[in-house]
Amino acid sequence: xxxxxxxxxxxxxxxxxYGSDVYSGKKTTLVHMEKELNVTRDFLFRVVKDRKGxxxxxxxxxxxxxxxxxxxxxIDTVGIDTSVPNLxxxxxxxxxxxxENLKFLVMDATKLSFEPMSFDIVLCIExxxxxSNELANKLFEEVLDLAKKGGFVVIDIKNxxxxxxxxxxxxxxxxxxxxxxxxxxxxxxxxxxxxFKMVFKRGLFTPFTQIEPFIIVAFKRSW
Length: 223
Prior knowledge:
Layout: H1 5-18, H2 27-47, E1 55-59, H3 65-72, E2 76-81, H4 84-97, E3 102-106, E4 119-124, H5 133-145, E5 147-158, H6 163-172, H7 184-193, E6 196-203, E7 214-221
Parallel strand pairs: 1-2, 1-4, 2-3, 4-5
Antiparallel strand pairs: 5-7, 6-7
């Protein structure tokens, strides 16, 4: 993927902004992240029954919360992130838990080095709202390309139709830290062009996805 110098600088600023203490911030952030994890886990448990032999990729895995969840489900999992401090925390837990079906790699999400259609499940959560529309479009296409036929891609969306979130993100979006709200249709249209169908959407705090600020969405590959 071709990344402009401006986007590359903003991505580095995101990594610097969050660092390894991403979970030690505001209580509201912690609640939001915990709900994201629970909604994603509930969806996967519901739709993925026979998990033997399945594999998954957790993009921008941070300290591995989703990676460990997937591994606990019996799925062979790879977690990638560019933050070495984050991965050091993840690897320390891995050494303690001794999960043999999980590994972590230092890898930039904009420079993915996996073969197409390599994974049954691909997660990309808490990342694309830190990218310009053009870069998010490109990355999402590459993320979709990694899913096998019948596989799932799960993402989060910061909803542009929630007035408060839209205002806050527009206010705080800057040269140092990109913050973008988007609609479900932004991602659905891209997914449909690549042979995917949206099979799940759920708000974290309300059932009304039209105005819910934080949404988990899943797509399934048809061909």
